[in-house]
Amino acid sequence: MNEPLDLPLREQAAAIAAGQLDAGELLEATLARIEARNPAINAVVETFPERSREMLAAAPAGPLHGVPVVIKDEWPLPWRAQRFGAADMLATPEPGESGPYRVLRDAGAVIVGVGNMHELGASSTGNISVYGPARNPWDPERCPGGSSSGPAAAVAARLVAGAVGADGIGSIRYPATYCGLTGLKPTFGRSAMAGHHMADVSTTIVSGPLCADASDCRLLGAVLFGEELRAGEARGLRIGVIENEVAEDVALPVREACEKAIEDLRAATDGEVRKIELPELRAATLATVLIANSESLGSITPERLNNLDPELSPLGRGLLKYRLMLPAAATVKSQQIRTMARQHLAGVFEEVDVIAWPTVPAVAPPLEAPMVELPSGTLTADAANVRGGALANLTGIPAISVPVGSSDGLPIGLQLQAAWGRDELLLDAAEALEGANGRRWVEATPPLAAAEQTEA
User: Above 80 in pLDDT, residue 171?
Assistant: First the structure.
């Protein structure tokens, strides 16, 4: 039998509910594993054993009763304010009962730690944080993805079986791919967001689950949604593919793995592959970046910018100051592009059920130099990744990243997107794809975890 800590989220919950696993012992084992494994990857920036034990003692008999989880440093807890991975986030963070905290608590889950994140949520790499960079369990010298770097690294290293991330422009899907996980970006407005300092103004950010596979994402996602995510069978799936840089300006191993995965999904669902066009994709990418940055302008003043904490990185300081330079006309135009993109997608989703392309065009780059080599040349990972990640945030549609291969020992992910509100379909499709490849990739274990299992 697997060690309880290595069981999937749903199996931990089932074993505790059946009396086969002691929740107190699981909590202590989780804290011990974090202490042992976390120094190599810096995924968890703070634990609070007494608070976690208090949560367990008061935990109701919910769907996650007694199950340990990690939450991103993007929401307050009653005993801890969020920091956004930054020395200065302009807002004044305070402890509190955020929406994700409340739904986890009410589901009986136990929050065992806070996950690291890229400074200010401002990158797809995770290589900058006030806590120091999180590291990829597959190769600690590689990026774990961002901005939900710590939650992803924690699950990949089997510190916990599930974690809560946030996705503003791909920030769940990028680390899911780099760390070999399944990550769901929910339909906008469907998952718990209260307490996030941007909750009242953001039209792109959502909370979402990071887990090993789709079934665990379904369970944790249902808790975050506050509703059951019913499982179905993906049959006759119409898979839309595009012929542009998102699908073609991709490292060869990634392109081959994703093309094979699309064919496997087609065969597994007795479906078909259809070519589609998204002519506004480049403009949509730029519009997403402009909207996400302009929505945070309310807390920025010249005086505040002149008194930033000196520990904030030069990139972070530059990003905050750049926002004041955004022309209002560009923001207005971005909203027009959003409307056009939503209209176009409504038509596309009459012809296909899901859209498929590589989540990111290359495997995790080095922490010291997050650059990727593509057919078009050398690009920063951020510039390359946002091309495939932004559309779902701009339009609000759900998207999921599923592990489908590896190159040089590093994971590869395929992104699936569906129409507004069809999160369940994405989970069904992901499960069909897992079955098609014999669950090879969702059950793969990074060296950090595999070495200790061998020793044990």
Answer: yes
User: What is the residue whose two structure tokens read 């994700």?
Assistant: 100
* pLDDT score of 456: 42
- List CB contacts of 207: < 8 A, sequence separation 6 or more: 75, 99, 100, 164, 165, 166, 167, 186, 191, 192, 193, 196, 224
Instruction: List b or e across 171-202, with b for residues whose CB sees 16 or more CB atoms inside 10 angstroms.
Output: bbbbbbbbbbbbbbbbbbebbbbbbbbbeeeb
Tell me the C-alpha distance between 100 and 280, whole Å.
34
The Cα–Cα gap between 450 and 188 comes to 36
Length of the chain: 456
Contact by Cβ (8 Å): 300, 70? no
Closest CA to 24 of 79, 67, 70: 67
Task: Give the C-alpha separation, 272 to 267, whole Å.
Answer: 8
**Helix H or strand E segment including 51:** helix 49-58
Q: What percent of the chain has pLDDT over 90?
A: 90
The pLDDT value given to residue 311: 93
pLDDT band at 298 (very low <50, low <70, confident <90, very high): confident
Residue 413 CA, chain-centre distance (Å), reads 12
Going 156 to 186 to 81 to 295, the CA torsion angle's sign is positive
Q: Provide the domain limits for residue 246.
A: 4-455
Residue 352: CATH number of its domain = 3.90.1300.10
Of 4-18, 84-98, 373-387, 427-441, the one with minimum mean pLDDT is 84-98
Classify 253 as helix, strand or coil.
Answer: helix
Q: How many domains does the structure of the chain reveal?
A: 1
Tokens of 286: 């730029």
pLDDT band per the 50, 70, 90 thresholds, residue 296? confident
Residue 408, phi-psi category: left (phi > 0), alpha (psi -120 to 50), beta (remainder): left
Which is nearest to 359 in space by CA: 443, 292, 426? 426
